[in-house]
């Protein structure tokens, strides 16, 4: 019985290990991971967001737009924070500017028709 207790106590005792090499390599790894995440995820998203803001600021009355809900209409009035969009025969709906997904450009210019 004494041998069994001795073996078990030796097996569960924490083994002393040599101290690991510096934390500077771990810090360098974390910095490199953050830099990679920034260039692969954050920077392209900011670029798309700036393009969307520019597109919204350039919209004017008469432009054909697509909303985030999938509705297609023509802008009939531009306000400070909203657009009034004509969706069909005398159906006008007011959308906040962030609800406009894209400006629809006709495939064939009007001059060639």
Name its key features:
23% strand, 41% helix, 5 strands, alpha+beta, five-stranded antiparallel sheet, 113 residues
Describe the structure.
41% of the residues lie in helices and 23% in strands. A hairpin with a 3-residue loop joins strand 2 and strand 3. It is an alpha+beta fold. The chain contains 2 helices and 5 strands; from the N terminus they run H-H-E-E-E-E-E. It has a 5-stranded antiparallel beta sheet with strand order 4-3-2-1-5, with helices on one face. It is elongated.
List the helices and strands and how they pair.
Blueprint: H1 2-12, H2 24-58, E1 64-67, E2 72-78, E3 82-86, E4 92-96, E5 100-104
Antiparallel strand pairs: 1-2, 1-5, 2-3, 3-4
What order do the SSEs take from the amino end to the carboxyl end, as H and E? HHEEEEE
Largest sheet: 5 strands, antiparallel
Helix content: 40-55%
Shape: elongated
Mean pLDDT: 84
> How many H/I helical runs?
2
- Report the structural category: alpha+beta
What is the terminal-to-terminal distance?
Answer: 100 Å
Number of strands: 5
Strand content: 15-25%
Poorly predicted runs: none
Strand order of the largest sheet: 4-3-2-1-5
Radius of gyration: 31 Å
Write a compact overview of the structure shown.
The chain is of the alpha+beta class and 113 residues long.
């Amino acid at each position: 019985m004494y041998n069994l207790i001795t073996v078990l106590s030796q097996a569960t005792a924490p083994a002393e290990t040599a101290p690991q090499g510096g934390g500077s390599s771990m810090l360098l790894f974390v910095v490199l991971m953050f830099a990679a995440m920034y260039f692969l995820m954050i920077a392209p998203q900011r670029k798309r967001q700036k393009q969307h803001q520019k597109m919204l600021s350039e919209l004017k009355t008469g432009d054909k737009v697509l909303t985030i809900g999938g509705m297609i209409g023509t802008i009939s009035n531009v306000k400070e924070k909203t657009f009034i969009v004509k969706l069909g025969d005398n159906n006008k709906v007011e959308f906040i500017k962030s609800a406009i997904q894209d400006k629809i450009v006709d495939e064939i210019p009007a001059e060639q028709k």
